[in-house]
Amino acid sequence: MKVVIQRVSKSSVSINNVMTSEIKTGLLLLVGFSDTDTGETFDWMVKKILNLRIFSDALGKMNFSLLDIGGEILVVSNFTLFADAKKGNRPSYTEAAKPETAKLLYDKFLTILKESTELNVQSGEFGADMQIDLLNDGPVTIILEK
Predict the structure, then answer these.
(1) Total domains, the chain
(2) Shortest CA distance to 143 belongs to which of 2, 11, 7, 49?
(3) What is the pLDDT of residues 91-141, one digit of tens each?
(4) What is the DSSP letter of 39?
């Protein structure tokens, strides 16, 4: 599993020019899955994401977690995180889970995330052509891989 975490002031997902999800201060998570991902992977990722101290305190130091600030989460599936562009000019996605498997993993990850917090958790639509709008705060962008 790979997750790109972006600290945002706001973010939204639109499908066919219709906004379907929106958050204010919090995290935009771009998530990609592989066939080796398990519940243990998701538990580790969720704990890490919720507790990362990447929000600023009164002195501007990153001391607060998403839980500390009561932030929001927007989760968007993104199989292209597994792109391998070492050879040629067309990326290979062989490390990414197949769509049927990835959909199940995405749904499971969302369920675990929502059950782990009372924070507002929104999501994109798996497999849809989405437009993501975000106001990156910082910018703070972190890549997690497990």
Answers:
(1) 1
(2) 2
(3) 999 999 999 999 999 999 999 999 999 999 999 999 999 999 999 999 999
(4) H
* The model scores a pTM over 0.85: yes
The 8-class DSSP code of residue 5 comes to E
- Domain carrying residue 38: 2-145
Rounded Cα distance between 88 and 121, Å, is 38
Q: Shortest CA distance to 103 belongs to which of 32, 39, 49?
A: 32
Task: Indicate the Cα dihedral angle 54, 96, 107, 119, nearest 10°.
Answer: 0
C-alpha 126/C-alpha 122 separation (Å) is 12
Where residue 90 sits, what CATH number does that domain have?
A: 3.50.80.10
CB 74 within 8 A of CB 28: yes
**CA 127/CA 143 separation, integer angstroms:** 22
The secondary structure element, H or E, covering residue 3 is: strand 2-15
Q: How far apart are CA 12 and CA 24, in angstroms?
A: 9
